[in-house]
Amino acid sequence: xxxxxxxxxxxxxxxxxxxxxxxxxxxxxxxxxxxxxxxxxxxxxxxxxxxxxxxxxxxxxxxxxxxxxxxxxxxxxxxxxxxxxxxxxxxxxxxxxxxxxxxxxxxxxxxxxxxxxxxxxxxxxxxxxxxxxxxxxxxxxxxxxxxxxxxxxxxxxxxxxxxxxxxxxxxxxxxxxxxxxxxxxxxxxxxxxxxxxxxxxxxxxxxxxxxxxxxxxxxxxxxxxxxxxxxxxxxxxxxxxxxxxxxxxxxxxxxxxxxxxxxxxxxxxxxxxxxxxxxx
Length: 280
Prior knowledge:
This protein is globular. It is of the alpha/beta class. A five-stranded parallel sheet has the order 1-5-4-2-3. It has helices spanning 11-18, 38-44, 55-58, 74-83, 101-112, 124-130, 159-168, 177-181, 215-224, 242-252, 264-268, and strands at residues 8-9, 25-28, 51-52, 92-95, 118-121, 156-157, 170-173, 198-199, 233-236, 259-261.
């Protein structure tokens, strides 16, 4: 596995970039699975110049049989990103409330859309505040960007591909172990996991503050789950948000080929003909 750089940005480096003559485009994507809305947090205070983008309504498609957070339509995503000021080739920094999940899904979505110059603020908004960074309540209207969305720049799994990967490679289920084993399911209608998937809960590679552990520790953690250079790898969760964080962690560990099953468990169980495994 080779080292991957320019995925995360620390507060001091971002502070210097924001103070420069051509700062990166800042996207605030704070989000919670069960409210209150992240927009309320944004209005209470955000990085100066940051634009709020709604993960549910703007970075994902309509919930349904494709899952709770399916891929957005490219034209819709392009319109959202241009309204947020995203420019072709210009750096973007995304941040969330500190757990790193929404920011990772935003990072993944922009990368999937063909925009390579995107990083996650490590530690999110809490890290910025803790370092004494300035906070604003002004809601900017940036000049319209010119990004062209070209989907497919990162590998995506559908249900068939996820089943095949679970059989021929390593498909990581990054939900907590009781959900994987089928002992409980607080969100989706069926409990269990995709047959052949390996459980590697997200807490093993990200701390409570949303900061990733060191690359060597990530590589060791993934290797323990069967991830090697010679084996294709992908990840899924409940709806494709936490799994995007796992894909970012895999990039940090040197696996930029890692695939995301965007529909995840919420899509898998939408079809009752798909098999469900339980237990360890």
